[in-house]
Amino acid sequence: MSTLPGVVILLNGYPGVGKSSVAKELLKILPNSKLLEYHSLRAIIDPLIDKEKEMDRWIEMKKSLLQTILKNLSLNNKSNNHNHNHNHNQQPLIYIFTSHLCATPNRLSILHSHLFSKNLPLIHILLNCSTEINLRRLNSRSKKEEEGKKTLIDESLLYELRMEEELGRFYDFNNSNSNSNSNLKENGLLGEFEIQTDNLMLNQTAFLISEYIIESLREIGILIRLNPQTR
Predict the structure, then answer these.
(1) Which domain of life is it from (predicted)?
(2) Domain for residue 168, yes or no?
């Protein structure tokens, strides 16, 4: 059995699409899984740098913080292998990250910062749905946050965002350069999958993602078993 220290699952999607909810479903079914949400990184950076005034510096800070986290996780995983029993070590730690990374140059640079090494490989999941469904989910989330948590984006901004910006991808479908694709794999990209969630329940989306994860890890000799589900 391979002793891969861990794997990063990046859930990328527009605000309100359901990244956080899907991530929490994944925590229930994926063994040894942990969650780091986008707003957790912002909570560290925003008090230090004004994003509106110093966008480039804000981006660089986020990339540096992300790389530091990934490096630390990789190093800690190696040492932790000596501190857990053999059965626990048979399955790697699964780190679930959530973010909205569009195809602008700055955001693409952050996307590529998730590629740390083959020792901590990445599976990129794009969560998408129609604009109508996205707006409906955003409104539903806003109602649940009335007790004080600030909504990150309103309807008009979300609509404008979806009209102007595509989600960022590693693979460019307009440029099927085999050398470029090979380099991505060499740098640790296990796979990139897009899921249309319009007609899917949360648990259905989570199980579909888990199937992608299982298959991607199987291709490099890693076998994982989902947590047993109670009814």
Answers:
(1) Eukaryota
(2) yes
